[in-house]
Amino acid sequence: MTLMNRAHSIRPELVKAYHVHDRASWSDRLAVLRERDARYKALNALYGIDSTSYHGQPDPAYDRRYKEIDAEFDPQYALIGKQEREWAQRSDMTIPEYLFLDNFTSELKIICARPDFETLHYFSFIEAKAQTLIARWKAEFSYAGMRPRVEMEIEDFRFARKRCWKHFAFQLWDMDAWKQVRVYRRIYARSLRNALGRSRLA
User: Fold this and answer.
1) pLDDT of 6 strictly over 80
2) Alpha-carbon span 170 to 168, nearest angstrom
């Protein structure tokens, strides 16, 4: 993919399109998993097992049939992931857009539903993501427990950086790309810590 130079671009229309596509992809994934699990359960029922999990049996036909179900459905599931990656490649996604959307699906609908969504920009999108995550963690942790969770999120950004590197096929000499990633991380970390601080006052 040609490396984008729009260093501070997160477009509302791209975020909304990703959200719609992501919801459709998850629906497809769940449909595949439900059908696969129904087949597992039907097979296990023949052996008096009330679950979808694999249970070793003396009968080699069980093992063979279970693997046949895997072989039938694994490619279908993998194809959905391949289509998602192809969509991202075709979307002309910027580096900040990729980092904003990376591993961020369940709460994305909250941001897309904001009345000011169409006016959000680079900084406000990152701040909105941080605020949304803090709101979720506030329901899960005490304030003391939230601080380590925030620092873990910042530390785990290294995995997002690796995925971004792979997606855009960065080279070591793509200094502008690495700068965009570093700037995004700095703003994201600051936004998370600021949102954490504000949550204590709320």
Assistant:
1) no
2) 6
